[in-house]
Specification:
Length: about 300
């Protein structure tokens, strides 16, 4: 298989072996790596069983609480329970990323800074407050997407979540403090290709650099409104190290008192591109189109 220049550029930056590079390029071209999961909403009782066959998840010990994986071929959005808001459908890679929350104590106050359409907020609530009773703020700068976020949360029994539309810099100067902030950052979205979604230019340097700059700005603002001893979970759905490991390195060097924290549940996925705890999966892992996550901790003494 002959790789394109853009594929070679990405695979070289990821330090992939020849075999891994061929598998990634094949996945990007085939566009068939999407794998869905469902997160149960507060409307689903503790003993709720979805109305479809589920996959065997014994090989996924990291699977977050109240997340089910439909058996291959099942389309979970096609059931009445989905319309009734008993569960929300999202990519399995997104659930894998949120497994990093297993290393975080239950927060008093949490903020999802880039929240629409709402998947990460639902995963956070399912973990820390399955009854939906938790002081959580879901923020989305884009008005149209904020409407979708509100609708999804309302449908899934999370209408009490406080929905806002501030820019990150406005949060940074607000004086508000949270114990946990989710930054599921806007990114070049290279993994969309592995899902069969067109995303022209996403492998190019200018798109990657522009996103890396924006991600650093969002994170610096998030650091300002994290309480001492608090956490930021940084996640993306893109592969390039400039938007992942290098952004995490930048924050740890630039902002005193911040360090990446180990997530024992994700240890097998430690990034070989980082000398601190940071985790990544590719389509070849079989958990969807891939993703990156890193849990940043603010020392209690700062
Ligand atoms: C990856 S998506 C979030 C997905 C969401 N967390 C979920 O799990 O459903 C990134 C979001 O960031 C928003 N966004 C774009 N530019 C932004 C910026 N400069 N600051 C904050 N959010 C931004 C986008 O509108 C988009 O909704």
């Amino acid at each position: 298989m002959e790789l394109t220049k853009a594929e070679i550029r990405l695979c070289t930056r990821l330090g992939l072996s020849h075999g891994q590079a061929e598998r990634l390029a094949a996945a990007l071209r085939a566009g068939e790596s999407s794998r869905s999961a469902v997160v149960l909403s507060p409307l689903a009782p503790p003993d709720y069983a979805p109305p479809f066959d589920c996959a065997d998840t014994t090989a996924m010990p990291w699977l977050p609480p109240r997340v089910k994986v439909p058996a291959p071929g099942i389309k979970p959005a096609g059931f009445a329970d989905y319309q009734a808001g008993l569960y929300y459908v999202l990519d399995l890679s997104s659930c894998w990323e949120s497994a990093a929350l297993s290393a975080v104590p239950r927060p008093e106050r949490s903020l999802d800074l880039c929240a629409a359409p709402g998947g990460k907020t639902m995963l956070l609530c399912a973990r820390f407050a399955p009854d939906g009773n938790h002081p959580h703020t879901a923020n989305e700068v884009n008005a149209a997407r904020r409407g979708i976020l509100r609708q999804n949360l309302g449908q899934c029994g999370l209408g009490q979540v406080h929905v806002t539309g501030l820019r990150p810099d406005q949060w940074g100067s607000s004086g508000e403090q949270f114990d946990l902030i989710l930054v599921d950052a806007p990114c070049s979205g290279q993994s969309l290709l592995a899902k069969g979604i067109r995303n022209p230019g996403c492998l190019g340097a200018s798109v990657v650099n522009g996103n890396a700059k924006r991600q650093k700005g969002i994170l610096l603002a998030a650091c300002h409104c994290t309480a001492p001893g608090g956490h930021i979970l940084y996640t993306t759905c893109t592969y390039d190290p400039d938007e992942n490991e290098k952004v995490m390195s930048y924050i740890q060097k630039r902002v005193p008192g911040w360090h990446a924290r180990e997530v024992p549940a994700l240890a097998p996925y430690q990034s070989t591109l980082a000398d601190f705890p940071a985790y990544r999966i590719l389509p070849e892992h079989g958990y969807g189109a891939g993703g990156f996550c890193c849990l940043l901790h603010r020392s209690a003494q700062t």
